[in-house]
Design a protein that fits this description.
single chain, 200 residues, mainly alpha, elongated
Length: 200
């Protein structure tokens, strides 16, 4: 019978409509993250240009790099060495990974909590976006944070001579805490995904 099913497109009452429309208040937050992404892109290119200039012997660029990575040496550096290059490159990788994290939050968060992007069939649709939800997004974000923490920890160990022992210990402990947190989130998500079908 045609009148037995409620119309899917029936308009919402004023209060539910207001509550549902409040999701658009998140839009300025995602636009702000896009602005933060632009800042990271600018920072990436500034560091890369300094690295290229230092490779060609620019002393000002070299000193800028040394200051930005917090590298200290007993003898003043007059040219790039392997450690400085490695620290700068790890810093660039760190920027890229944080940028990837921002993209996941912007695209996945908007798709999950605000409005559909209608990217089905688009050749550039991210593979992970086809099955994204709040739970999957949490796991992916936790994994990305572990990757970023790993890069930071590696930078610290490479430049360990310039850090206090307590700093090294605490960074390692925090990284392990991130790792266990991600495992707990993934385990909870797996348990929930197995228990939900069994309730029906």
């Amino acid at each position: 019978m045609s009148d037995s099913k409620p119309s899917v497109t029936s308009p919402l009452k004023p209060l539910p409509n207001l509550i549902f429309a409040s999701r658009w208040l998140q839009l300025p937050l995602y636009l702000g993250l896009i602005a933060a992404q632009a800042v990271y892109v600018f920072h990436f290119w500034v560091e890369l240009v300094h690295l290229l200039e230092a490779a060609f012997g620019n002393q000002h660029a070299l000193q800028t790099l040394i200051t930005s990575i917090g590298y200290k040496s007993d003898a003043p550096l007059t040219a790039l060495n392997e450690t400085v290059i490695m620290l700068v490159v790890l810093g660039l990788i760190d920027v890229v990974m944080i940028s990837n994290l921002l993209i996941m939050v912007i695209v996945g968060g908007y798709e999950t909590f605000v409005s559909r992007l209608n990217l089905e069939g688009h050749p550039d649709q991210p593979e992970w976006l086809s099955h994204v939800n709040a739970s999957v997004l949490k796991v992916k974000l936790a994994t990305a944070i572990i990757g970023i923490s790993s890069i930071h920890l590696l930078k610290t160990f490479i430049n360990a001579a310039n850090y206090d022992e307590k700093v090294l210990i605490w960074q390692t402990v925090i990284h392990i805490a991130f790792l266990f947190s991600a495992l707990a989130i993934a385990l909870a998500d797996r348990l929930m995904s197995h228990t939900v079908p069994s309730d029906h």
